[in-house]
Write a structure and sequence with these properties.
449 residues, alpha+beta, four-stranded antiparallel sheet, 4 strands, disordered N terminus
Length: 449
């Protein structure tokens, strides 16, 4: 069970420090190394993704669909050899007839036991059986591709929820620091008012500014609670037992992949192609009914027949066996258009599957293009936000020092603090947006990145 070990303030401080560094491309080995350094009881992004894939109902449903498709393949394969077996026991209390060996009218108990084994082997089906197997296998492939897509969808949803929670908790930390700064300014303003250097209006403005920062903190805190609830729902943990530990990479900005190869390799497109091929196989299977259906059937029956008075069978005794083999042929001479309708229906399914394939191809191509635009934009915003935050911190320190010395006005302090708050907020947003954009790009590429 995962339990919190850090307060929101501690986590906010960790996030704020992590946001300040440069970035490197994602490395699984580096992620595992850093995850090992995280305090026990906190949830890393990798652990959150693994937990969601293991427990989320969507993942369970995708696995169930693959299992159902496997059973469908087995059902069609079973038609290659059709076994049958049955056994019957007959108990009869009856009066013998005129042709019986004993005296007519005798009341006897007669018991019959019979067992039958049968085997039917299709010899020629006009392609119906092999094409049916092919269609079932392709449907299974489509389910497997859809399962892979479901895993990627969950990965993105968890990643987005995880970083949105990190965003809100980091913003809450920034707002708390802003509250401290506003209260410090209020104390200095009241002291200056007592010395006659500032008016009561300046004190009122400082108090309003302090209240506004507290109001902003309450809003961010509520948004953090909402983000925590969303992440907890995805990973299946109570919110009270969930504490995240985001890990930020460091180094130079990444390069962007070529989207063209990823389009055709995308799991959604592979699933759509498999469905088209399955629909085409169903057309050929439906056309198989136009041909004679030949099959070899052999049966063996062993038992007695107490109902035949000439057999001399009385009670259980007098067993005998009978074996036969035959070839049967079935041909639809007149079916009122049933086969034609089945073929036409299968052709319509092919048309629908091809339209879905083209729609999916366009959606995948568009998603990759849009994801690249977002990722590049987020990277550019991140570079500007880093510089803006550094300059804002320097400006506020300089203005506060001058205000304490009596060389700057209160309004300059307010303006500098608001500028720094804006810069830090933009910096956090840019950091989180960049990582969400990376996750969205990975989803759009279908794991081909």
């Amino acid at each position: 069970m995962i339990r919190p070990v850090a307060t929101p303030l501690m986590l906010g401080a960790f996030l704020l420090g992590a946001f300040s560094g440069p970035m490197t491309p994602f490395s699984p080995a580096l992620a595992q190394e850093r995850a090992a350094m995280v305090q026990p009881g906190v949830l890393t992004l990798e652990a959150a993704i693994a937990l969601a894939i293991a427990t989320h109902p969507d993942a369970s449903l995708a696995r169930t669909q693959v299992d159902q498709a496997d059973i469908g393949v087995a059902d069609v394969e079973a038609q290659r050899l059709q076994f049958s077996a049955d056994a019957s026991v007959l108990g009869r209390h009856a009066q013998t007839g005129l042709l019986a060996t004993n005296a007519p009218g005798t009341i006897t108990d007669q018991t019959g036991i019979n067992g039958t084994l049968g085997l039917t082997v299709p010899i020629f089906t006009g392609g119906k059986l092999p094409q049916g197997v092919r269609a079932a296998e392709l449907s299974r492939d489509a389910a497997s591709f859809q399962r892979a897509q479901t895993r990627q969808d969950l990965t993105f949803e968890v990643t987005r929820a995880y970083w949105n929670l990190a965003r809100q908790e980091a913003l809450a930390k920034v707002q708390q620091e802003t509250i401290v700064q506003a209260q410090r300014t209020l104390v200095l303003t009241k002291a200056s008012h007592g010395l006659g250097r500032l008016t009561s209006n300046d004190v009122d403005r400082a108090e309003v500014d302090s209240l506004n920062t507290q109001d902003a903190f309450l809003r961010v805190k509520a948004q953090a609670q909402e983000a925590l609830e969303r992440l907890a729902t995805l990973v299946g943990l109570p919110p009270a037992e969930l504490t995240i530990a985001p890990v930020f990479a460091e180094g130079s900005p990444r390069t962007w992949p070529d989207p063209a190869p990823a389009v055709e390799a995308h799991p959604r497109l592979q699933a759509a192609r498999a469905r088209v091929a399955a629909a085409e196989a169903n057309v050929r299977a439906a056309q198989g009914d136009r041909w004679p259906q030949l099959s070899l059937t052999t049966t063996y029956q062993h038992g007695n027949n107490p109902l035949d008075p000439l057999s001399g069978a009385r009670g259980i005794g007098s067993f005998s066996g009978t074996w036969d083999a035959r070839v049967s042929a079935n041909l639809n001479v007149f079916d009122n258009g049933r086969v034609d309708r089945q073929v036409a229906k299968a052709n319509l399914e092919v048309r629908s599957a091809k339209a879905t394939l083209e729609k999916t191809r366009r959606e995948v191509r568009s998603a990759i293009t849009l994801a690249l635009i977002k990722a590049r934009s987020a990277q550019e915003r991140l570079a500007m936000a880093e510089r803006s935050s550094d300059l804002g911190a320097k400006a506020l320190t300089w203005v506060q020092t001058r205000y304490e010395q009596g060389y700057s006005l209160l309004v300059e302090v307010h303006d500098s603090r608001r500028s720094l708050l804006t810069a830090r907020t933009q910096r956090i947003d840019a950091q989180v947006d960049f990582r969400i954009a990376q996750a969205e790009l990975a989803l759009a590429l279908g794991g081909a990145e």
